[in-house]
Design brief:
homotetramer; 446 residues; alpha/beta; Spore Coat Polysaccharide Biosynthesis Protein SpsA, Chain A; 2 domains; eight-stranded mixed sheet; 16 helices; 9% strand
């Protein structure tokens, strides 16, 4: 009893219809749901196509529903969050509507972006297989261009590593991925969580990932070797909203505790990355550099005073002639901490400031690592997060007995904080600036 | 308070001394222990070299102990197991010997093979870092030649996937690895386990891996990118003892339950494999083919009657002219199940029979997968284990409610066994022969 | 005024028709010619399809001719050579047949195998571009599976390196390739050569390559990155005819001189090989090993007496239990020299003997090099030929003044034979057995 | 009778001495020559070290000479050219100096940069092997970082392709390489060429390559798989002199004819590039971008009027905020042609202008191609040169009968210029702007 949902907004209609068709024909799928952002032209075209198909002599073999998303949240921008949450509501209650002809509650809810050109029946099969093995959540992950995924790496993964270093969160491969499968009890738990229902914007994926971890659901990350081919963004500017909303979602959770009790989290091994992905370049570098000098206001320059010298001066210089090498890992992390305390997602100056900082960070990463090749770049991302979560773990427990990471917490077998990793650590921990007191955020204060 | 132990038997002495030196100079290490298999020439040379060093004007800066291993077990062949267990005994009690000058109990015990030519201080640092992060066990893993590790893949990983498919065991990267670090409470727990102390042979690594999982210790697998360079075996014949003893260790555990409660198991991401490893070929193919016709006895041919037709006839034909393509994944798994029930490690005919079957299996794998390149070969290994643990999970719970894989076992949210993965599964599950009733082995009987 | 010819025998008809279509639609092509081996079913189907197309309301926009090949040779097996030579005859005379409506002599003749699934307009464009740049001959070359092309490497390239080491012949990438373009004057020169016209079998490609070099035609080798996908042979047995006929072609030329005057030979740089090619395995190893014990006769064993001990004894042992490691580079080269003197393509015992030796050589190469990865295997092939042509060059001029390799032969600047490459040569020259006197074959005797 | 010469200026002394030692111990080498740029500290240290060695009880086994370079040219900056030419003079006359104890004229002259850290005896052996095979010139080539070699690709190779497209010059792998071996008759021919002797600066390598081709010497390019590790330049600024002098050398030759008669040019096949080279990034991008706004003068802006709109406006805009995407292949080639006519190596404004254009070109290449991976970048370089030499060949003969590229020029078999490559050419010829009349430079005017 699986329902496959495709949220959509403005997509290539033939791709959407092709994907609906693949889902309908899969023998594990009982129904398909399309949730549109608004009743726009794309919506009308898809609606008409489905109608036509169902009135033809070869109608869909299974129900294909189409809805406009409900406004479920009250404060944040209505966006993908309202869409996915609308689908969850539909999923939970579908069997109570006689018109739907479902004889029992639906068991599994799949989400896939509607515009995936490389979508095929394997996405559904792998998710169903994982659910059949008993996993509460199956998330797809896949190879990505080395310049893609920079909201994931610089914002979500860095945030998870800083705030919940001893949990499974920093180990989730693609925490912002929108291709996943929830079992019914997961949907129930998420819908019971007001902060999920209120997250109507791009922050929704962060919320799903976070609360699944907090509630201890078991997770399988399943590998899709061909990757996710879909419409590309034009330049980094298109990502500003996503960046701000994803950061704000992490920020809103920063005082949330996550238990360190173990959860099941398994990762299907990856395979070599096809050259069409390693050779793709995700954004226009020259155009993106220009963002560093655009839309400055006096107030933005004032807000910069909250930041460490290096970030502040670097960004000011970059407004005159592009610089980005100042925004190294350490500079970004120190700025990130200030942002956690002060960022305001409703304030355009803050939005513009975090955006410029992130642009500098992405340029730094591109020039320093991407130019050295795909594997170097991916390794740089991975090592940044590993270093952070290690360093952060050490800090959190400095001077205090650290708890072993297992289910039977024993006493008396403390790891001594007095033997930190040697300076020439094999993990390559870069010297970080002295950190601000950990009491301002993070879980140690509780 | 870390102790680094190098078990040894007959090694290149300069390599051993070099490794001792690296350990002594590491600032996390308090003492080094060498455990020799017997008082052979190698032992005497190392002993003399340490004496000489300590009597020189530049003695070791820390204690370097050297012992001959104690006979701790009673039944199995005295081997590496006695050596490592001797080291564990020393570790636990060292602070009680005033001569040792340890002011408090030692906290961490590292093991490294004495003959690793690529050993450096990073191995120790990574293990200490992991322990400092709170992991009970840190295991090193590393890239290996595609023709190496065939006892691991065909014997240990296949066995773990068949017997404990829903646990963390099939996901352990290198379950036979001898480079690891235990915290004191792990050593205590292992020494309290009689079956560990009785495993005096090559089966010891299996025991350590198994009981750490059974007891729920948290595990970090730490990646060593340069790999483990060490003395090579001459041909597959050298591996017969190891094969038999590793299989027997799995077999002896086959009725042991392992809880499906989650444990912490994290895997440091791997990096691209250096070409010196991808281009290495691990054994002499022509010479190994000859093993298929050697040492046959009438009784071996009689024992073959216990096996399915395909394995039986294939092996008989191979005694006349080499064949190995019959020994595909399915044939090997079906033979493996017979071996689990009938193999006798003390019976030379059984030892020779499992050895020939394994040689055929390794040749099959080499000709079918290794010839297609390093990544194909590694992927074939990984997928074999993934398929097995998935198929086995499905079987174990056929017709019964399957438990979700999380810490709070809920009721009423069962995954329906009536929707198995579609035949054209994206996981590529090969059709397996009908399985013998699961009551004969495995954990479902309890 | 280009004619594209597809020789064919028994092919997948839709593939052939698709390729005809591509050729017809190319704006550099004036006509297409299909030459069938016999009037078999494949021929009739293609004939009918072309008729039908031409009688439809969308006929081919250009003439598409279909012929059965003429028997042009008298002694050798009628085969691909008759087919290609038939096409050359057609090409030369086509403008004299009023029915053909060619207003002037055709200028360029392209050949492509009819069964290439990866054929597209680029093959034609690249050849036409090369011809437009002034090259007499354009040959396509492409990446191939590491187990493919073993007639090319072990027979043709080894022969060229041994017999004409100082010419361009050992540097031709794919001397047996059937995808090429000749300008009219090349066709005229080849047709004037009786040995070309008599080479009615698989040896035709060798003849074309050889006489183009001997006559000093300029050559461009053009790279086709996607490779040549086509029907695969089942096992090495299928290649026996090709092997014998390609060897016999080289053998028949062994007393032919080739001038060392420079010719133009340029090689379009290759690009990284796609994984679908690096991961392909070309033949069935287990099945091929069986060839070593099949079809032995007493006379074959007698003929083995002509060969060096190592080859003779190795092959005899291999008839009882497969061996192949004896057939290393040096053993193969020494056997090759005996074959050059004694092989008789009309004698079945000789055919079977060269075949078994070659099977052993291919197995040796597969086990020693292919198992180490695609790049190792290709490099082993390349280095074998480089070593041979170097060593052979040295031998040919031992004790005699060597001529500089340029167009103005100067005197008095001799390279001293007394300073051979040092034993630990960077070219990795393996020690070769003392060679038989060079007077028996090769060009030095003239 | 080989002489190995190391030109040097200011190098790491131990590296130089190590390389001298390797050369002395090679059994093909008779003497070593060090040519210093000036009597600086480096010179004095090396001099002293050699003296000391020769006065020790283990003196060099062969003569090691050290000289300060002679001022041989009169106009151009004294530099590497004077150094190498000094070595050639020494080589030619060495046997006439009784003090040198050479009983006969030296036969081969090797050059190696003195600072190569990856130098070993194989460099010498490969060159000697090639010379023993009869090649007049052996040039070493090797894998290089994708951001290295941008004077070679953008200046020398582009120039060779534009000016002498039908000769061997555009096919020389590393025309600026300083690791090579000349036979005596080559040295004689080069020294007889006044333009070589006058090229005292960085242009010397261009001269050697050009005149060897013009005189028809046979060439082997020998591959050194480990690459050339040596001291790195700090940023692109360091390369300004080299850029200007290499361009001026090409420019000075632009009216020189090169015969299209074939010459022997063979290229030892390359092997996969080690990751230490693919992962190296050759220059500081952020620092290099700053060069675009530095050192502008009013006169430079005036000179820009000579250039096409796109280059002119792009460079002016880049002086205010960095741009480089305008400097694509076509823009660079059109600017190159203006530079060929107008550049003045003695005029600082011209030097600064060509430098800025080249910086923009290198940034364009880096952002567009290097970010997509090593192989993409190398392929982009190769294809740029291939496209140019093809397009240029077509242009040169437009409307005129084109000569076949072989040694027996035949008549009557013309390639028709009226069938140009199709627009969607498989060689990917980018549409080039209409070219300025070819009469202004290049060989067609003669």
């Amino acid at each position: 009893m699986a329902l496959v949902c495709f949220p959509f907004k403005k997509e290539r209609v033939p791709t959407v219809l092709r994907n609906v068709d693949i889902a309908v024909r899969h023998n594990c799928v009982d129904a398909v749901l399309l949730v549109g952002a608004t009743k726009n032209e794309c919506y009308r075209k898809i609606y008409a196509a489905i109608e036509a198909k169902n009135n033809s002599d070869q109608p869909y073999a299974k129900p294909v529903h189409i809805l406009v998303q409900t406004r479920l949240a009250t404060v944040l921008r209505p966006g993908k969050g309202d869409g996915m949450n609308t689908a969850m509501q539909f999923f939970l209650n579908a069997h109570e509507q006689p018109a739907n002809h479902f004889t029992e509650p639906l068991k599994r809810l799949h989400f896939y972006d509607a515009d995936i050109e490389s979508f095929d029946h394997n996405w559904i099969t792998k998710a169903e297989d994982g659910a059949a093995l008993g996993y509460d959540v199956v998330r797809h992950y896949f190879p990505r261009s080395s310049t893609d995924a920079q909201v994931t790496w610089q914002v979500t993964k860095v945030g998870f590593a800083l705030l919940w270093p001893r949990t499974t969160l920093p180990w989730v491969q693609q925490p912002l991925g929108g291709e996943l499968c929830f079992t019914r009890r997961v949907v129930e738990a998420l819908m019971a969580e007001p902060r999920v229902m209120q997250q109507s914007d791009w922050g929704i994926d962060t919320m799903y990932t976070f609360f699944c971890a907090q509630k201890g659901f078991s997770l399988l990350e399943s590998y899709v070797p061909q990757g996710k081919m879909h419409a590309l963004y034009g330049g980094l500017r298109d990502l500003k909203n996503m960046l701000c909303e994803c950061f704000a979602a992490v920020q809103s959770l920063r005082h949330e505790p996550v238990s360190e009790e173990p959860t099941v989290h398994r990762i299907d091994p990856a395979t070599p990355v096809p050259s069409c992905i390693t050779e793709k370049i995700g954004y226009d570098i020259e155009k993106s550099m220009r963002l560093l000098r655009e839309k400055w206001t006096a107030r933005q320059k004032g807000l910069l005073e909250l930041f460490p010298e290096k970030a502040k001066c670097g960004l000011l210089r970059a407004s005159e002639w592009p610089e980005f090498m100042f925004m190294d890992e350490q500079c970004w992390v120190s700025a990130y901490k200030v942002l956690l305390d002060h960022f305001n997602v409703f304030d355009e100056d803050w939005r513009e400031l975090i955006f410029k900082m992130w642009v500098a960070r992405v340029l730094n990463y591109t020039m320093r690592h991407v130019t050295r090749g795909y594997h170097c770049a991916l390794q740089a991302n991975t090592e940044m997060v590993t270093r952070l979560h290690m360093r952060r773990t050490m800090e959190l427990f400095e001077g205090k007995p650290m708890q072993p990471l297992d289910r039977k917490v024993s006493s008396g077998h403390l790891c001594t904080p007095e033997s930190p990793p040697s300076p020439s650590s094999s993990w390559g921990i870069e010297p970080l600036q002295p950190l601000s007191p950990v009491t301002s955020y993070g879980r140690s204060e509780r």
